[in-house]
Structures are given as C-alpha cells and as structure tokens.
Design goal:
The structure is a single chain. α4 packs parallel to α11, α7 packs across α8 and α8 runs antiparallel to α13. It contains 13 helices and no strands. It is 83% helix and 0% strand. With 317 residues, it is mainly alpha-helical.
C-alpha cells in the first residue's frame, strides 16, 4: 500500500502543472492565459486526487482484508470518486475566488460603516449561516438511523427527534464564536484568557456528563464531534477571512491615528535619520501585517469550543 501511494505521487510529480503549461504553450501553441487556466484547474484536480484516491484505496483494502468484503460495483465506485474529486475541486476554488474575498471585505468594511453592536449581530448571523452551509453537518442525519433507542435513548432523541434544535445549538455556538472573535479583534483582547474562560466550563460539564450522569455519556461524544464538524471547508475559510478583514480595518485605523500624530509633531531633520525611520516603519508594517493575519486564526479555536459547550448545555436541559 505505501509503495503504491509513493508510486502515485512520483507519477503525478512527473506530470506536474508546470510541465502541462509548458506543453500546452510550446507544443500545442495555446495562449498563455489559456495554458495558465488549464494549469490552475489541473492543479486543483490533482490535489483532490491525492486526497481522495489513497483514502479510497485504504478503505477498500481494509474492507477486503479484515471483513472479506469486495467492491460489488466498481464502475459506480469509480464514478462516485470522479464526481467527488471534481466537486471538491470546484468547491474549493469557489471558496477561494468568491466566498473568502467577500468575507474578508465584509470584515474590513463593517467596522468602518456600522457601529459595534450591528457588527457583532452581523457576525453572529454569519456564524449561524455558515454552520447550515457546512457539508459536514449533513453527516449527523445518517447517524440517527444507527442509534438504538434502547441502548442510548438520549442520543437517539437528540439525533432523531430534536435534530433541528441540535443543529441550531451548533450554529449558535459558531455565531457566539464569531461575535467574541470580532469583539476581540476590535478591543484587542488576548486570546488565552478567552480560551481558558470557554474551556473551563466545557471540561467541567464533560466531567459531569461522564461521571455524574452515565446516561449522558453518549451525548458527550456527540458534543465533541459537533465541535469537529464546525471546522469544515466552509466555516474555517469564512471565519478566518472575516477575522483577517476586521484586523486589517483596525490596522488602518491605527495607521491613520499615527499619521495624524506625526503630522502634529515637529518635523524631523532630513538625512540618515529620515531614511532609518522610513526603513523602520516599513519593517514594522510588515510585522503588523503578519501579526494581524496570525491573529485571525484564533477565531477558529472559539468556533470549535463553543459548539461543544452549546451541545453540552442542550444535553443537560
């Protein structure tokens, strides 16, 4: 199995995107723009092939070795894999081209045009909506049919009878994470105390659900799985882009304030001091850009913890 995967990666490397563009440009006389576009889509499909094909081969091998079950319809399996590869490639590219720039622009423009309460409300609604748009959230529906109501009645009730309430609680957790993350960016709060504040009640409720009430044990696993569901291909890019956009807006405000202060201060001497200050300003700006981009990643941690806490509270109610 590892030799096959290694051979697959080696073969893919020989037929890389740059080689394809060179072939189309020089041998087929394609225009540079068309060849670059073909290279782009080839790269996207290639990435998804390297993700889907090895996993599918591993699953087929495990089913054959340990359970003595073989593929009954290979053509249907091949068609499903091809559809998954093409769909994931288009999905990821659509997120990069459309959804992420819109989220970043929204995060950059909201603090400039609206007051803070409206910004927080919009961030909360965005967090709830991306939860419903998350493809991984649909995995909760087939799980309901696998639960025995006599063995885990509360889990069966959560997945079967109150599933919409469960998804709403997950969305509210993500919305609260988007709100707190935006508020942190605006106020400049530290991330560690916020994580500690959210993690402490989450762990306390987990301890109670495991040792205090054994009937709630199946719901504890569901709660933590819901935290993983929210960090999918829709929620993470949208919330990251939103956080980075808000950080850019706040940075621009800080730079505008510094410019006003420098305009009011006495003029400095010309010469080496001016050049050094300019170099220092450029270096500081680059460090701020990198820091702002990294600060945007903190919102994903909150988006993982708060849905867990929300589902735990739902389990106790």
């Amino acid at each position: 199995m590892p030799d096959f995967v290694g051979s697959l990666y080696a073969a893919v490397g020989m037929l890389g995107p740059s080689s394809l563009r060179t072939y189309l440009e020089h041998d087929k006389m394609w225009h540079y723009r068309d060849a670059s576009l073909a290279e782009h889509f080839y790269r996207l499909i290639l990435e998804q092939m390297l993700a889907v094909i090895p996993i599918s081969i591993l699953l087929i091998t495990v089913m054959w070795i340990f359970f003595d079950r073989q593929v009954t319809s290979p053509m249907e399996l091949a068609g499903g894999m091809a559809a998954a590869i093409l769909g994931l490639a288009l999905f990821v590219d659509a997120l990069r081209v459309c959804v992420m720039p819109l989220s970043e622009q929204l995060g950059e423009d909201l603090p400039k045009t609206l007051s803070l309460p409206y910004v927080l409300v919009i961030a909360a609604f965005l967090g709830v909506l991306v939860t419903y748009a998350e493809p991984a959230i649909t995995t909760l529906r087939p799980l309901a049919e696998l639960v025995d109501p006599e063995v885990a009645p509360y889990l069966y009730c959560a997945l079967m009878e109150t599933q919409e309430v469960l998804i709403l609680c997950i969305g509210l957790g993500v919305g609260a994470a988007a709100t707190l993350g935006t508020l942190r960016f605006v106020r400049g709060w530290s991330l560690k105390p916020m994580i500690l504040t959210v993690l402490s009640p989450t762990l306390m409720l987990a301890v109670y659900m495991w040792w205090g009430n054994k009937e709630l044990r199946p719901l504890l696993g569901l709660a933590w799985d819901c935290g993983a569901v929210t960090t999918g291909p829709v929620t993470v890019p949208v919330l990251l882009a939103l956080g980075i956009g808000v950080m850019k807006s706040k940075r621009q405000e800080r730079e505008a304030e510094k410019a006003k202060e420098l305009a009011k201060s006495p003029q400095r001497k010309k010469g080496g001091l001016k050049k050094k200050s300019k170099v220092h300003a450029n270096t500081k700006r680059m460090m701020e850009d990198a820091g702002d981009a990294l600060e945007g990643f903190g919102i994903v941690t909150l988006a993982s913890l708060l849905p867990v806490l929300a589902v735990e509270i739902l389990s106790l109610s």
